[in-house]
Amino acid sequence: MDFLSTLIAILATFPYITFFILFIIMKKVTRQATRSTKFAADLSNLFFLIAVNAILFNLLNRSFIVYFLLLFMLGVIVVITMQWRKELEINIMRAVRVVWRAGFIILVITYTILLPIGIYITYL
């Protein structure tokens, strides 16, 4: 159990490296760049979520996991409502996938912005 928690901590500390490792592994397995990118983004999203929460916790002394989960759920509700307005059939898994991948993009941008701020404030 100690090894697993250490591995998760390392992967969450460097989520970009986690993304590229997952991408390279999946590229070797599937031989499809698009599918490998989607898979790596889906899995590394969790590590970006942990990393952004850790940076925010260091900066503000408060955890934001509950807020992230609420935002993801609200996003799914919005996407399902848009599906309901445009189409007759609602696809919940499609809505979750859209929100999860949009969350990946937002978390990557947030991590990129917060990392230098966190380093600057920590070593000020």
Automatic annotation (TrEMBL):
- The source's domain of life comes to Bacteria
Which regions span the lipid bilayer?
Answer: 6-27, 39-58, 64-82, 102-123
**What keywords tag this UniProt record?**
Membrane, Transmembrane, Transmembrane helix
Pfam families, per the entry: DUF3397
Q: What is this protein called?
A: DUF3397 domain-containing protein
Q: Which organism is it from?
A: Piscibacillus salipiscarius
